[in-house]
Amino acid sequence: PQGSEEAKTFVHAFLKRSMPKMKDEAIQEMLTRKAVVLEHYPKKKTKQKRKKTKGFTAKQRRELRLFEIEPEQQRYAIFLPLHELWKQYIRDLCHGLKPDAQPHMIQGKLLKADLHGAIVTVTKSKCPSYVGITGIILQEFKHVFKIITKEDKLKVVPKLNNVFSLELDGFISYIYGSKFLFRASERSAKKFKLKGTIDL
């Protein structure tokens, strides 16, 4: 260990080398303060902007056929287990579809529920060829339902100008497609207002 005089000499020499422009008197004055603050300017760290992961565009999704169902998969029997899952999901959502359940409460929950797997029937339509189509909803888009029928045919049914019915445990609910023009994700956060009369 160095003595106090050697340490003092070392610090003086170090400051002289570090700050050559400073006079000896100024260095001595700094030493009498018992504390030496060395100036240090840290480099400013540039914040790296996080790159947002870009998803596929609508054109790319069409080209990749992400939402296309292969012809060999277009079979009604394949999706019956999906329908059973959907029925259990609705029962849990509505706390059991009991006879004394309030229709408005069930209707309100069905409006926001996920309909993938539900069996629906077109009951009214401005286009007569759609009336009577029954099947399991495979895909729901903003403007259309994709439905697989018992005949293993994939039907694309527009929501506009169509009325759909779905039945579960004796409870029948009607969906007015013209008032249902939302994506499933948007619909779950939508506040629906009760209306007196609804036309096609």
Automatic annotation (TrEMBL):
Keyword Amino-acid biosynthesis: no
Molecular function (Gene Ontology), one example: ribonuclease P RNA binding
Pfam families: RNase_P-MRP_p29
Compartments, record wording: Nucleus, Nucleolus
Keyword match tRNA processing: yes
Keywords noted in UniProt: Nucleus, Phosphoprotein, tRNA processing
GO biological process, one term: rRNA processing
A GO CC annotation given for this chain: ribonuclease MRP complex
Similarity remark: Belongs to the eukaryotic/archaeal RNase P protein component 1 family.
Known function: Component of ribonuclease P, a ribonucleoprotein complex that generates mature tRNA molecules by cleaving their 5'-ends.
Subunit structure: Component of nuclear RNase P and RNase MRP ribonucleoproteins. RNase P consists of a catalytic RNA moiety and 10 different protein chains; POP1, POP4, POP5, POP7, RPP14, RPP21, RPP25, RPP30, RPP38 and RPP40. Within the RNase P complex, POP1, POP7 and RPP25 form the 'finger' subcomplex, POP5, RPP14, RPP40 and homodimeric RPP30 form the 'palm' subcomplex, and RPP21, POP4 and RPP38 form the 'wrist' subcomplex. All subunits of the RNase P complex interact with the catalytic RNA. Several subunits of RNase P are also part of the RNase MRP complex.
Name assigned to this protein: Ribonuclease P protein subunit p29
